[in-house]
């Protein structure tokens, strides 16, 4: 079945799939899945959480950022800021003033944290799934002097990836915007649950990133869950169950207020 589309006020034709919750459950926050860098809304985690929410009668939204999946735009033209705006636009379109919980995978975890800081009124919790907070800074710290020169001359770099046959294109605009979107450069105080689930065998985003993120986001229910034998994807059945359990815990906390 083809996705639905929303023409955002910022120019992106956003592809999305929305499952409304049961009417008696609509007092609970909806769940929004935020995908990773160059991933799309049809990935394992996004579809698994949709099935969980459907079984439990909870509203659920998954979507593609501009330049990803079915949405309009070119990937190389995107930045953390533009993809954050896509997320904000589709959340506003679907949920309006309703509360939501964000489940962000890899880059989506970073975007979820930015949204939490900027739009805290209606965000009632965040589950970070191998959250890649400030990953553009990590890229800048890794590239060689020769690569820096290429970046300055051409405006982009092509870096190999374990997740695609073709290299990832990393633009200067992406790296520069990443500085504006950084979340680990200062401390933040939050008052909603933040759960950071991370694999100890993650070679793409080392697990210490979860600890650094937790240290930057001080709240009464900020927690790190490290999974000993898991890597970056966190798509094995036992990992998916951990993610679903933590979303359910946030819903239970919400009902207690």
Q: Please report the total strand number as a whole number.
A: 12
Counting helices, strands and paired strands, the structural category is alpha/beta
Helix percentage range: 25-40%
Distance between the termini: 38 Å
Percentage of β-strand residues: 15-25%
Gyration radius from CA atoms, angstroms = 18 Å
> What best-fitting shape do the alpha-carbon axes yield?
globular
Helix tally equals: 8
Instruction: Identify low-pLDDT runs.
Output: none
Q: What sequence of helices (H) and strands (E) makes up the elements? A: EEEHEHEHEHHEEHEEHEEH
| Oligomeric nature of the chains | single chain
Most strands sheet:
8 strands, mixed
What is the arithmetic mean of pLDDT? 95
Strand order of the largest sheet: 1-2-4-3-5-6-10-12
Short description:
With 257 residues, this protein is α/β, with parallel strands linked by helices. Helices cover 37% and strands 22% of the residues. The N and C termini lie far apart (38 Å).
């Amino acid at each position: 079945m083809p996705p639905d589309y929303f023409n955002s006020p910022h120019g992106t034709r956003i592809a999305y799939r929305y499952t409304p919750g049961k009417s008696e459950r609509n007092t609970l926050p909806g769940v929004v899945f935020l995908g990773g860098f160059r991933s799309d809304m049809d990935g394992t985690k996004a579809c698994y959480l949709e099935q969980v929410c459907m079984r439990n009668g909870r509203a659920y939204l998954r979507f593609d950022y501009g330049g990803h999946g079915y949405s309009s735009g070119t990937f190389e033209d995107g930045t953390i800021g533009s993809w954050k705006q896509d997320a904000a636009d589709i959340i506003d379109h679907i949920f309006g003033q309703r509360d939501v919980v964000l489940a962000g995978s890899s880059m989506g975890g970073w975007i979820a944290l930015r949204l939490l800081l900027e739009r805290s009124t209606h965000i009632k919790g965040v589950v970070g799934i191998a959250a890649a907070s400030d990953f553009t800074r990590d890229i800048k710290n890794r590239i060689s002097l020769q690569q820096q020169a290429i970046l300055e001359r051409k405006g982009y770099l092509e870096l190999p990836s374990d997740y695609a046959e073709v290299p990832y294109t990393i633009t200067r605009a992406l790296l520069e915007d990443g500085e504006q979107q950084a979340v680990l450069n200062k401390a933040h105080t939050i008052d909603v649950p933040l759960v950071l689930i991370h694999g100890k065998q993650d070679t793409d985003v080392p697990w210490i990133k979860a600890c650094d993120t937790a240290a930057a986001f001080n709240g009464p229910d900020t927690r790190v869950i490290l999974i000993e034998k898991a890597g970056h994807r966190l798509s094995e059945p036992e990992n998916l169950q951990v993610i679903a359990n933590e979303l359910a815990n946030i819903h239970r906390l919400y009902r207690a207020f």
